[in-house]
Write a structure and sequence with these properties.
The protein has 260 residues and is α+β, with helices and mostly antiparallel strands. The protein is built from five helices and eleven strands. A hairpin with a 2-residue loop joins strand 6 (164-171) and strand 7. The longest helix is centred in the N-terminal third of the chain and has 19 residues, at 39-57.
């Protein structure tokens, strides 16, 4: 596991598929993640994430459409998710984002599109020169910095085509998918370069590519061995954290970006 804060040049969505951004909003209560369950607070936070991503990427529009609040499995309630401690992507070449034009032609978007994303936004993306899906992950507390458990990103340039396992996912009679990362052979060292940002603060947001319809040449080279441009990521416990370090709470928001 490598320290992404030491990378030069600094990683960006355009060059590496992931980027650490500064967040100046205040929509999510710092130490009580349950507050995000309030509809008005969620919508306010969505808007702040949209503004952040448009400012950082130059996108003409952004549409936040789903989020997950994450706590340790032993503490979570129905509306919350645990940590995903395995290498995976959130979408694949079979997902709605890669098949946007096809799915819009099928008929009712409510039946074939992802929950939370309305048809107007989907059609705007389909007409655009480029669109992308990005996840914005933020540490919420309860400690002053994230030390007990982190989110790490795999450098896509270190992934070979043979490392990618294609998973099919069926929801509402519609096929989608994601990718898993094949483990190295027994006794072999992993060749994958995995990065994380130690001591993430509440005013920092880790953003990473879920899908990009038209990546630039540098991103194309990074994701050259992938069936679709989507970052592998996963959670891991920090062995250097003190025994009394509280388990982390975090929230991630998925957002559709559009360049008209």
């Amino acid at each position: 596991m490598r320290n992404a804060r030491c990378l030069k040049p600094t990683p960006s969505l355009a060059t590496h598929g992931f980027e650490l951004m500064s967040y100046k909003g205040s929509a999510v209560k710092d130490t009580a993640m349950g507050e995000t369950s309030k509809h008005e607070r969620v919508q306010t936070y969505y808007k702040e994430v949209e503004q952040l991503l448009m400012q950082q990427t130059g996108a003409d529009a952004a549409f936040s459409f789903v989020h997950a609040m994450r706590v340790p499995k032993r503490d979570r309630v129905k509306a919350e998710a645990g940590y995903a401690s395995y290498w995976h992507t959130d979408q694949s070449h079979n997902s709605w984002s890669a098949r946007l034009h096809e799915l819009l032609e099928l008929g009712s978007w409510e039946e074939v599109g992802p929950p939370g994303l309305d048809e107007v936004a989907a059609k705007r993306a389909a007409r655009a020169q480029r669109y992308a899906v990005v996840t914005a992950w933020r540490y919420l507390g309860p400690a002053d910095a994230c030390r007990e458990s982190h989110l790490a990103i795999v450098d896509p340039a270190s992934v070979d085509a043979s490392d990618v396992i294609d998973f099919s996912l069926i929801a509402r009679s519609l096929e989608g998918g994601n990718y898993r990362l094949r483990a190295p052979a027994p006794g072999a060292a992993s060749k994958h370069a995995c990065y994380y940002y130690p001591d993430m603060l509440r005013n920092e947001v880790l953003c990473f590519t879920v899908y990009d319809s038209k990546p630039n040449s540098e991103m194309k080279a990074k994701f050259a061995t992938m069936p679709a441009p989507s970052c592998f990521h996963g959670a891991f416990s920090d062995p250097s954290a003190s025994e009394d370090e509280p388990p982390r709470e975090s929230v991630d928001v998925r957002c559709l970006l559009v360049w008209d």
